[in-house]
Amino acid sequence: MNVNQLKPNHYIFGNKGNVWSNSAHIAQSGESTTMCGTPMLSNNWANIEGVDNIGCPECLAKYRDNQLAESLKIVTILDNN
Questions:
Q1: Backbone angles phi, psi at 2, to 5 degrees
Q2: Nearest Cα to 14, choosing from 36, 6, 30, 77?
Q3: φ, ψ dihedrals at 39, nearest 5°
Q4: Which of 26, 28, 51, 71 could hold 59 in an S-S bridge, CB 3.0 to 4.6 Å?
Q5: How confident is the model at residue 46 (pLDDT cuts 50, 70, 90)?
Q6: pLDDT value of position 79
């Protein structure tokens, strides 16, 4: 997933190892861990280095699940009205 596909309040996060291994994470504003639970204890090297690809499979799966759940909730609300 490309970083420009993220919804507002979500951003790319990764340490130097994530930059080198193409495994940057998805973080959400106001949280201290990424979507997969990785603590954000370093500088955000993914942002500093301009990485634009998110590669953490766990973060990607959780992000997509959350987006699907949000879409289903909207459809349910519309169906009930």
A1: -90, 145
A2: 36
A3: -65, 145
A4: 26
A5: very high
A6: 58
pLDDT band per the 50, 70, 90 thresholds, residue 10: very high
pLDDT score for 34: 98
3, amino acid identity: V
Stated pTM of the model: 0.85
If DSSP states are collapsed to H, E and C, what string results for 23-80? CCEEEECCCCEECCCCECCCCCHHHHCCCCECCCHHHHHHHHHHHHHHHHHHHHHHHH
Q: Which amino acid is at 45?
A: W
Length of the chain measured in residues: 81
**Does residue 25 contact residue 53 with C-beta atoms inside 8 Å?**
no
